Amino acid sequence: MKERKKETILMTSLKLFSKNGFHATTIPNIAKEMKMSVGNIYNYFPSKNNLAKCAIKFSSSILASTLRKINNKNLTSKEKIYEFTKSYYEIIEISPEIIEYFLRVYLSNRSMFDDENDKGFDLAKDFVDEVERLLSDGINKQELKKQNFYVSFSIFIGALGGLTFLNGEKALEEKPIQYAKEISESIYNALKI
Amino acid sequence: MKERKKETILMTSLKLFSKNGFHATTIPNIAKEMKMSVGNIYNYFPSKNNLAKCAIKFSSSILASTLRKINNKNLTSKEKIYEFTKSYYEIIEISPEIIEYFLRVYLSNRSMFDDENDKGFDLAKDFVDEVERLLSDGINKQELKKQNFYVSFSIFIGALGGLTFLNGEKALEEKPIQYAKEISESIYNALKI
Amino acid sequence: MKERKKETILMTSLKLFSKNGFHATTIPNIAKEMKMSVGNIYNYFPSKNNLAKCAIKFSSSILASTLRKINNKNLTSKEKIYEFTKSYYEIIEISPEIIEYFLRVYLSNRSMFDDENDKGFDLAKDFVDEVERLLSDGINKQELKKQNFYVSFSIFIGALGGLTFLNGEKALEEKPIQYAKEISESIYNALKI
Amino acid sequence: MKERKKETILMTSLKLFSKNGFHATTIPNIAKEMKMSVGNIYNYFPSKNNLAKCAIKFSSSILASTLRKINNKNLTSKEKIYEFTKSYYEIIEISPEIIEYFLRVYLSNRSMFDDENDKGFDLAKDFVDEVERLLSDGINKQELKKQNFYVSFSIFIGALGGLTFLNGEKALEEKPIQYAKEISESIYNALKI
DNA sequence: TATGAATGAGGCTTCATTCAT
DNA sequence: TATGAATGAAGCCTCATTCAT
Predict the structure, then answer these.
(1) Three-state SS string across chain C, please?
(2) What is the rounded CA–CA span in Å between residue D103 and residue C103?
């Protein structure tokens, strides 16, 4: 149950951080949202920074496991890209904070996450590894073009993030998921052999 | 000369904001970097928020004019995409702050930029308009696929930004510009008819 | 057994207070050191302040009884001074907290110990009384000079404390007890007729 | 004038620290006492700890220079001890905080003053050096007994401090300075050949 | 225009103490 | 008795902004 409450705090923080940004979210904000006292949060997390770091780990692990499940299916690369794109925008619909968090907090506070234990980007390593698996698998199956991993990664994840950004800007006319088919096809075209 | 000094302040702020983030950059930091007094900055910009907003306008105008020049050339869409990709990563090499600023400041502080006068994303309208011009021009010339603008925008700008992110993470082995050819081809493949 | 546990808490507090100071020692610190719960400490002592006050009483009573035993012996004043000096530095070697406590906690938090019941210094009254007994006894036996009690007290106890201070500063080359002979002789010379 | 204000802050802090102890004195307390804003104090001293450390340096330098002047006079050791005792209790009468500070703050927060730059006790080095000069000078002139420096230091400074303590406890019937003659004679007797 | 000292609200964090179990 | 999660007041410190010079 202690673990349970820790997770609740994490989810609430994730939500507020992703809605308002790291600096604009105060510990009292989080406490109030949870109807919990300020001090008690510190019984679960030693600092606001640590809370933000755990949130990164948490949300990147969701993305990683989502993609892992897809990678484990017996699908073509094209299908996998589509499946992940769909899942990604489903997450945005249900728990937008999981993805928004990267844009709002991680991107702009990277240095905050660097310390002797974690190397910043490593926090998302599991997810990056799964992307690599998807890509190298497609290359092996001669479905995808053999090209620099960073380029493919940028195309794939950059495109997904780009639409997320536009969604956050309220620039889209439809919900992101409506664009899933179209965007995943474009991504596929960029990566295919 | 007043205009001249205003611009110096802007450039310095842009540099510091993009290096350290908006909240981690203080007005005294900026003043010190310029060997100017804190108070005097307020003779040129009414607030720190306003400074950040002007910085957005400034840096998006650079991107916009860069792309405008390319659009005005007599080139195929493929060439234009390549040209802009190159320019984009050249900017990153010479003045990374112009691009980093979006990642560090704009993305995570959007609400800050919303007020009665500016609608946030509108700050980058000029640039978005040029992207649209590039794309619709390609469609007209039957070089690019006719598809939802937001999807194409996400692919194009998302991919460029994705690599910038990886560069910021020190995840790349080469300078971003080394990937320009490869990434612009992928983008083209994603968008072509 | 309740009394027994109470004493254990007291000893632990005394140790931590004297090692780290009153404010730097928290109730959770004490609880953890004892493998006891925070709340349970409050079943034995009503407050942290009270704990500190009891610790003073406890440690001054040790000094008082040590000196009382010496006073009850059939010794010259010179011998008594030497005996007490030795005992004092033995205590420092075995349980430095008993003496350090005065320096770390009592001296700098006197006001804390003043309330309607106790008058601060009175906490050490037993000990002060024994010092007085030693001195007046020496005067009666025409061994010690008849002089103002506070002056003699300052010389005697001040000198012992001075060396304790230097020991705490790690300024001494030997253990305090090595200086016992020399220092007690000096004290005697200061007080003798 | 900036230096002047810095000194005023120092004196005020010294006064409050010595009256109430380090932890019981808050920065707002100090600010209020000076009719100054909290933030402004930080324009002069980077932290509360640093303020306390500067106060140590300041007050030990006063003691050091007082004793240095006496050492430079052509006096017997007995006279020097008397002179310094008098000065010491004069300081207590006029600016008790200078001496009380050691008892209230330094003694009980030593570890606070230890860092890579200052070694705690070194803060008082100037003063300790002057005491050594007084003593070795007396030994050379065959007025004082050749004995361990730490022992003599403890007798001399311990005795002075002992009476200060009693004064702080309001245990004395007269002002400390009334005891100067008597106490300096006892000290001399302890140290003489 | 330029300076930089001054202000004070507000954020993070700590910890004595309580209380439900 | 014993536990330890929960409370919330209070402290240190930062920094955007102002203003007297």
Answers:
(1) CHHHHHHHHHHHHHHHHHHHCCCCCCHHHHHHHHCCCHHHHCCCCCCHHHHHHHHHHHHHHHHHHHHHHHHHCCCCHHHHHHHHHHHHHHHHHHCHHHHHHHHHHHCCCHHHHECCCCECHHHHHHHHHHHHHHHHHHHHCCCECCCCHHHHHHHHHHHHHHHHHHHHCCCCCCCHHHHHHHHHHHHHHHHEC
(2) 8
Q: Which of D134, D166, D171 is nearest to D153 (CA)?
A: D134
Give all chains having 3 or more CB-to-CB distances under 8 Å with chain D.
C
C-alpha torsion sign, points C102, C108, C110, C112: negative
Residue D119 sits at φ, ψ, to 5 deg, of -100, 35
Q: In chain D, count of helices (H) and strands (E)?
A: 10, 0
- The architecture (CATH level 2) of A56-191 comes to Orthogonal Bundle (1.10)
Q: Are B132 and B149 in contact (CB under 8 A)?
A: yes
Would you mind telling me the total number of residues written for chain D in this entry? 193
Instruction: Render pLDDT for C83-129 as a digit per residue (tens, 0 to 9).
Output: 999 999 999 999 999 999 988 888 888 777 877 677 667 778 899 99
Q: Would you call B111 and A171 a contact, using CB atoms and an 8 Å cutoff?
A: no
At A141-162, the pLDDT tens digits run 999 999 999 999 999 999 999 9
**Residues shown for chain A:** 193
Structure tokens at A3: 């673990």
Tokens of C27: 């109730």
DSSP for residue B171: -
SS3 D192: strand
CATH architecture observed for domain C55-191: Orthogonal Bundle (1.10)
How many C-beta atoms lie closer than 10 Å to residue A146's C-beta? 12
CB A5 within 8 Å of CB A44: yes
Alpha helices in C73-143 (DSSP H): 77-94, 96-101, 110-113, 125-140
Substitution target in A85, A110, A149, A154 with the highest count of B β-carbons within 10 Å is A154
Residue C100 C-alpha from the chain's centroid: 8
Question: How remote is the C-alpha of A193 from its chain's centroid?
Answer: 27
The DSSP code for D106 is I
pLDDT of the residue at A124: 82
Classified as helix, coil or strand, A144 is strand
Cβ distance C160 to D158 less than 8 Å, yes or no, reads yes
pLDDT in tens, A163-189: 999 998 889 999 999 999 999 999 999
Residue of A nearest to B17 (CA): A108
Interacting residues of B90 by C-beta distance below 8 A, sequence separation 6+: B177
- Per the document, the length of chain B is 193
- Whether residue C158 and residue D153 make contact (CB cut-off 8 A), yes or no, is no
